[in-house]
Design goal:
The protein is an alpha+beta fold. It has 3 domains: 17-73 and 107-236 and 400-451, 2-Layer Sandwich (BirA Bifunctional Protein, domain 2); 252-379, Alpha-Beta Complex (YbaK protein); 469-570, Rossmann fold, CATH 3.40.50.800. Helix 12 links the parallel strand 27 (471-475) and strand 28. The protein binds adenosine-5'-triphosphate and magnesium ion. Adenosine-5'-triphosphate binds at residues 109, 140, 142, 151-152, 155, 157, 405-408, 440, 442, 444-445.
C-alpha cells in the first residue's frame, strides 16, 4: 500500500473522548472513526487488522471441523417469542418494525436462527455431530458503550453452534472448540487465560471464558497461585471452612448515633470490619430476602440471583428499605428480622459479632447464632478476595487480575432445541432432541485487546500475525530520485514474495513520518534516503526492540524478506 494514496488520517494528540490506550491508539493511527455511540467505521488500516483476526479465526474453526454459514442479521420476533427471549432479553435487544407492522430485531446472537435452520434441515442422527459458525456484525444496545470498539454496540463476532445427540458427544464438541480457541488466541499473539464462567440461569452446564490479561479489562478474574484453578469473579469460590469459635460475650444493644457504614461501625467499636456482619435487602418475584455478609466482604449479585432462582432480582434501594422494614439501611440486622435470611458461608463460624440492631441508631454486639437468633440458611454469596484460600486445591491462595473477555464457550444443553422443538431420528428410529453448545469470539474486540497488550509510549507494537503490514518502507524524500527508485524496488520485491509492505511515499516532514511509523507499528522498518544512499546503505529497524542496523543497498531486499519470514515462522 502506498501511503500517499491511502486514507490513513493519523492524529498527533490523544483524543479527549478516549480513556483506554487501545481506543486512543486506534483513533490516532487512523484505524477507526466513530459514527455514533458504540458505532464505528473501520478505515483501511484498521480493516486490514480486523481481517487478519477474522482469517485466523476462520482457519482454526475450519480446522476444527466447523462449517461456515452466514445467517441474517435481521431476525423475526416470532423466533424469539418461541424461546421466550423476546420479552426476557431486555433493552440490549434492538427491536423495530417493518412496513407491515411486523416485529423484528437486529441479532445480538443467533441461537434462535440457527436452531430454526437446523430443525428444518437436519433429520437424522447420521448428520450429527454438526457445528456451524459465522463471522458477522452483531448489535447490542449496551447500556454503557465505551473503550471504542472494545465495548461497542455494533461489533463483529464469530459465533458457532454445535449439535450433538448425547452428552458425551457434546462434551467432545466442547473440548474441540476449547482447543480451537486456545490455538486462535495463541496465533493472535495474546497473553490469555481460560477461566470458569457463570453459566447463569441455565445452571449446571459448563462455561468458560477466555480473557486477555490487561489492567483495563472490565472483568476481574481469580486464579490460584499453586493449581490451575481460574474463574471469573462472578463465579469464583473461596475455599476453607471457618471453625466455629465459642461465644464469649453477652449480646448488648449499644447506641450508635450517626453510624452508617461498616467503616463507621469498625471505627466506633475499634475493631476490624471482619468482626461485623452487614445486612442487605434484595427482591425477586418470590419476595424480599435479607442477605448477610461479613463486613469486609462484597455481595456477588450473580451468585445471589442464581441461589434465589427468581426473576427480577434487584437490591432494594436504601429509601425503600426504610419503607419495607421500618429501619434505615445502616441499622438493618438479622436479630428479630421477619424477612427470610440467607447468610454467606463465611458467617457460619462467626461468634460475638456486631450487627445492626434493627432499630435506628443502635447496633448489637456479642451476637451469636442459635443463642441470639436462629441459624439461617447458608450459601456462597460473596466475591472472593485476593489472598482467599483456593477452593480446588485447598493449599494455594487466590490472586485477582483484570481481563478482557475475548471468547466464551458454553454448553447450552437442550434449552433452545427443546423450546424450538428441534428433533432428529435416533438409531432406534425415535425423535430425539439434540444438545447444543455455543461458542463466541469478539473478533473486533480482539483488535483492541491486542493493542492493550502490545504498545509503548510511541504507538502500537503489532505481533506479526495481526500487523497490518509486516514492513514499512520509509522514504525520506520522494523527490530524491535514487532513493525513490530503490524504495519502489524493495516494495515490489517484498510484495511479489508475499510480504506486506507499506510505502510511506508522502511529501511530509521526516519527523511526522517517523512518528506515524511508530504509531502504525509495523514490526520491521527500512529508512531510505539522505546521506545513507550516497554511502550505499539504508537503515533497518525492529519496532519490537528499536534496534537499528545499517544494511548495504544490495542486501536489503533479502534481509527484509528473511527477517519477515523468521517473524512469521516464530509468530512474534
Ligand atoms: P460481555 O460480558 O463483555 O458483555 P458477553 O458475555 O455479553 O460479553 P457473549 O454473549 O458471550 O458476550 O458474546 C461473545 C463474545 O463477543 C464475547 O466473549 C466478547 O468477546 C464479544 N462481545 C460481547 N459484547 C461485545 C461488545 N459490546 N463489543 C464488542 N465485543 C463484544
Ligand atoms: Mg454483554
Amino acid at each position: 500500500m502506498r501511503l500517499s494514496q491511502t486514507l490513513l488520517p493519523t492524529l498527533k494528540e490523544d483524543p479527549v473522548e478516549a480513556q483506554v490506550v487501545s481506543h486512543k491508539l486506534m483513533l490516532r493511527s487512523g484505524m477507526i472513526r466513530q459514527l455514533g455511540a458504540g458505532i464505528y467505521s473501520w478505515l483501511p488500516l484498521g480493516l486490514r487488522v480486523l481481517r487478519k483476526v477474522e482469517n485466523i479465526v476462520r482457519e482454526e474453526m475450519d480446522r476444527a471441523g466447523a462449517q461456515e454459514v452466514l445467517l441474517p442479521a435481521v431476525q423475526p420476533a416470532e423466533l424469539w417469542q418461541e424461546t421466550g427471549r423476546w420479552s426476557k432479553y431486555g433493552a440490549e435487544l434492538l427491536r423495530f418494525k417493518d412496513r407491515g407492522d411486523r416485529d423484528f430485531c437486529f441479532g445480538p446472537t443467533h441461537e434462535e436462527v440457527i436452531t430454526d435452520l437446523v430443525r428444518h434441515e437436519l433429520r437424522s442422527y447420521k448428520q450429527l455431530p454438526a457445528n456451524f459458525y459465522q463471522i458477522q456484525t452483531k448489535f447490542r444496545d449496551e447500556v454503557r458503550p465505551r473503550f471504542g470498539i472494545m465495548r461497542g454496540r455494533e461489533f463483529l463476532m464469530k459465533d458457532a453452534y454445535s449439535f450433538d445427540l448425547d452428552q458425551e458427544s457434546l462434551d467432545n464438541s466442547y473440548k474441540q472448540m476449547f482447543t480451537a480457541y486456545q490455538n486462535i488466541f495463541k496465533r493472535c499473539g495474546l497473553q490469555f487465560r481460560a477461566v470458569e464462567a457463570d453459566s447463569g440461569a441455565i445452571g449446571g452446564s459448563d462455561s468458560h471464558e477466555f480473557h486477555v490479561l490487561a489492567d483495563s479489562g472490565e472483568d476481574a478474574i481469580a486464579s490460584c497461585d499453586s493449581c490451575d484453578y481460574a474463574a471469573n469473579l462472578e463465579k469464583a469460590v473461596a475455599g476453607g471452612s471457618p471453625e466455629a469459635v465459642p461465644a464469649g460475650a453477652d449480646m448488648q444493644k449499644v447506641a450508635t448515633p450517626e453510624i452508617k457504614s461498616i467503616d463507621d461501625v469498625a471505627g466506633f467499636f475499634n475493631i476490624s470490619a471482619d468482626k461485623t456482619v452487614k445486612a442487605l435487602l434484595v427482591q425477586t418475584d418470590k419476595g424480599e430476602f435479607m442477605l448477610l455478609l461479613r463486613g469486609d466482604h462484597e455481595l456477588n449479585e450473580i451468585k445471589a440471583e442464581n441461589y434465589l432462582d427468581g426473576d427480577g432480582f434487584k437490591l432494594v434501594e436504601p429509601g425503600a428499605v426504610q419503607k419495607s422494614t421500618g429501619v434505615s439501611v445502616g441499622s438493618l440486622g438479622p436479630v428479630g428480622a421477619t424477612t427470610p435470611i440467607i447468610a454467606d458461608n463465611s458467617l457460619a463460624g462467626m461468634s460475638d459479632f456486631i450487627c445492626g440492631a434493627n432499630e435506628d441508631g443502635f447496633h448489637l454486639t456479642g451476637v451469636n447464632w442459635e443463642r441470639d437468633l436462629p441459624l439461617p440458611k447458608f450459601a456462597d454469596l460473596r466475591n472472593v478476595q485476593a489472598g482467599d484460600l483456593c477452593s480446588r486445591c485447598g493449599a494455594g491462595t487466590l490472586r485477582l487480575d483484570r481481563g478482557i473477555e475475548v471468547g466464551h464457550v458454553f454448553k447450552l444443553g437442550d434449552k433452545y432445541s427443546k423450546a424450538m422443538q428441534m428433533t432428529v431420528l435416533n438409531q432406534g428410529g425415535r425423535e430425539q432432541t439434540p444438545l447444543m453448545g455455543c461458542y463466541g469470539i469478539g473478533v473486533s474486540r480482539i483488535v483492541a485487546a491486542a493493542i492493550e497488550q502490545n504498545h509503548d509510549d510511541s504507538g502500537i507494537v503489532w505481533p506479526i500475525f495481526l500487523a497490518p503490514f509486516h514492513v514499512e518502507i520509509l522514504l525520506i524524500n520522494p523527490k530524491e530520485e535514487a532513493a525513490a527508485k530503490l524504495a519502489e524496488e524493495i516494495y515490489e520485491y517484498l510484495k511479489a514474495r508475499g510480504i506486506e509492505a507499506l510505502l510511506d511515499d508522502r511529501n511530509e516532514r521526516l519527523g511526522v513520518k517517523f512518528k506515524d511509523a511508530d504509531l502504525i507499528g509495523a514490526p520491521l522498518r527500512v529508512v531510505i534516503g539522505g546521506r545513507g544512499i550516497k554511502d550505499g546503505a539504508v537503515e533497518v529497524q525492529s519496532r519490537h526492540d528499536g534496534v537499528a542496523e545499517k544494511v548495504a543497498i544490495d542486501a536489503v531486499g533479502d534481509l527484509l524478506l528473511k527477517r519477515a519470514e523468521d517473524l512469521l515462522k516464530g509468530g512474534v
